[in-house]
Design brief:
Strands 1-2-3 form a three-stranded mixed sheet. The protein is elongated, with a radius of gyration of 14 Å. The protein has one helix and three strands. Helix content is about 25%, strand content about 40%. The two termini are about 15 Å apart.
Length: about 70
């Protein structure tokens, strides 16, 4: 099971998409994943938390798309 945080940034004025993912946001993702697994009797299922980072230019054209696997573990 894979839980994914997707972040998009247009331009570089506010940093990269991955820089916008705070520890609080990832803790929330982990808590949500654990809650989902528990409610669906999947506590023993393997899972991971990934990050998809999308950078766009000012004309909204794709500059970079990166899939970071296992960005956060339990």
């Amino acid at each position: 099971m894979v839980f994914v945080e997707v972040k998009t940034r247009r331009g570089a004025a506010f940093g990269t998409p991955e820089e916008s993912v705070t520890a609080t946001k990832f803790h929330r993702l982990i808590a949500t994943a654990q809650d989902y697994l528990q409610k669906n009797s999947l506590e023993q299922a393997p899972w991971r938390a990934d990050l998809v980072s999308i950078s766009l230019d000012e004309q909204v054209k794709l500059l970079r798309l990166e899939h970071l696997e296992n960005e956060v573990e339990e």
